[in-house]
Amino acid sequence: MSDWRFRLADNRSTLLAVAIFVVMFILYISNHPAGLTANVVQTASNKAVLLAFVAMAQALVVITAGIDLSVGMIFVLTNCLASWLVVGTPLEVGFGVLAVLATGAACGAINGAIVIFGRLQPIVTTIATGAIYFGIALALRPFPGGSVDETLADALTGRVFGLVPASLLVLVAVVAMIWIPYSRSVTGRAAYATGSSEAAAYMSGVPIRRAKFVAYTLSGLLAAIGGLFLTFFTYTGDAAYASGNAYTLFSIAAVVLGGVSLFGGRGSAIGAIFGALAFRTIGDLLFVFDFDPLWQPLFQGLVLLFAVSVGAVALFRVRNRLDWFA
Amino acid sequence: MSDLLLTLNRISKTYGSVTVVDDVSIRINTGEVVGLVGENGAGKSTLMKILGGVVAPTAGSIDFDGEAHPRLTVAASNRAGIAFVHQELNLFDNLSVAANVFIGREPRKGGLLNLVDEAELVRRTAPLLAQLGADFSPDARVADLSLAERQLVEIAKALSVNARLLILDEPTSSLTATETERLLVTVDRLRSEGVSIILISHRLGEVERLADRVVVLRDGRLVAELVGTDIAAPTMIRHMIGRDLKALYVPPAAAPGNPILELVDIRTVGRPDRTVSLDVRRGEILGLAGLIGSGRTELARALFGLDPLLGGTIRINGEAVAIDSPRAAIAAGLYLVPEDRKLSGLILEFPIRDNIALPSLRRFARLWMVDEDAVDVEAVRQRDGLDIRAGSVRMPCGSLSGGNQQKVVLAKWLSMAPRVLIFDEPTRGVDVGAKSEIYHRMRDLADAGVGILMISSDMEEVIGVSDRVAVMHEGAIAGILGREELSEHAVLTRAVGREPVHSE
Hints:
By secondary structure, chain A is mainly alpha-helical. Helices cover about 80% and strands about 0% of the residues of chain A. The radius of gyration of chain A is 20 Å and the shape is globular. The chains are: A mainly alpha, B alpha/beta.
């Protein structure tokens, strides 16, 4: 048995997510009235990166066999916070950005600490902390408002060299600077081991607590990057409950679509990103095919079911193959 | 002679270029116990999967009821009255015995709601349990039953579909001696009632006792069919491995040195009122014998930091160490090869290489990032050193045989220079060939200066492999036997606490 077959099997779910997205995006572009222009790509990218960041955040926690139902609320909270802090002189803006990111990371760290030391189930813990984070967001912005440094906002939502969407570059940079080092680090490996079999990981002396803590904290940080971008797009802060909840649920959909196993230990944040991109493209597809926007949730649901079924079929086949080798 | 029930007629199964089962023919008569033995990977499981209808043979046929079937489906297998009792039981812990036996086939009351007829359920289960000589009620919750009793529930389940052929896969691997005895009696009784049985077991003594005929597989081929007085463990072993097994005991290369692991007045959660004091010397294999429940596993768990240590001192290499977690134990150079390797020894979905690197990831890290090439090099080195049979170190551990999985667990620890290794039932579910390899590896380790503590319920193993044996009884050491005093009798009398012992 050659190595590449096993490597392929390991990354099959991620590759499938990429394939689903590529097919959908080609379908979208080929039916778009303007075709493949920098403008179309920029719009698509800007719409998709928000969910991509939140889905990455979700993926980190799901890999440890947990789930984070507060990601959407951290996203909303950091949006509200950014609408206060990311203004003023360049120095103030810089500190504002750092403060927003630190807040997100702190929210994640609190989730992690409660799950680890309180030994509470992640699902319940994050429902509770999510409500708290939303409460703080509401206190910060009882009504939509505030502002953000427009130079920075426009730079990060515009195009670089008039061609590449800046938001996409930031996404790539975040993958390169956070996900790749993390997934290859000792702690990242520990996260996968913990998610696969906590008992075996513990018996091997794997630092389980640190793995979980880092996963939740980075998750909060990634959600905060998403929150910042939301502010850059909207120029305001808005403690929108429905939006927070929608992002939480969509992040789970994106993670599953991206081939991250909800049982933990399998998948990657890159898969989750493509899951998010694919999920967003569903909506765009409906647009180019001139469907009534009222049908969007229904079709999103149908496409999600279909896509997840395709993934399940592939998984099923892998299982049988593994049986063969026995 | 009894009637023919079923014939496997020149069955072959190939996967690509690999032949797993090669031209095997077996006939099974009514009311006959056929022992099926062979090392792991000999083709037993595949053959059984073919009988269960899960796998289709590449060539050959299965003949029953006067018809030749090129393959069985799961439904056809059920119709033919073939029932399995797997090594890993498939029961619902929170349901009653009766509910488990008739799961999915519950008698209904009819009417609008068509509810389950609980009374009828119990009424139908009771005779099945009586037939097996079980003394628990059909209402008992499975969670409250012992492992042996759960096994009877599985057999009852098989009987409830009027099984004509019962396939028992390693039925006694986790039972105590008394429980095993009872199961063997049950098998005898089923045979007398006309049920045919295929018994797959590594415990050759049981096969010897029960089987009317023994089929030996090696490398997918049927190498021997034994009847009558030929059914004897040495003969079976010779056919299984194709050679005579060398004597188990290999004396140490040098006389044992200073104690490397010293236990002083250790108290564990198992028996907080008793204390254990014990030395494991550098370069020796100390066997730890005793009945199930005598406190051996609890001692190992406490030493490895899984259970809290209630009192006493652990010294490694003369230095007292505080062990409050597996991490602390590992840091002190004390490793455990656990009994349940599938749950806590390995991550089955992980490739071999990642399992080997798991406890020592830090060592493979450069600037916090795991150096994948270094992991590959170490994994390949361990695979070759331990002769782990796998084409690629990226193969998931779940697809390895029991013996090879155990070797991966061993590889994990060997890659990190152990000082003390505790083996808890090191060869449970491991085939004969891999067993002797594991014993040799233990001896090599001991000769390299590692202290080895081997917990085992397998008397042959305890006596055959250990340099000294400590026998536990009710949470305390009931005696320590040197090599020259070792005998089954000596170990057993101490294990059951029959011989008066003065102190620990």
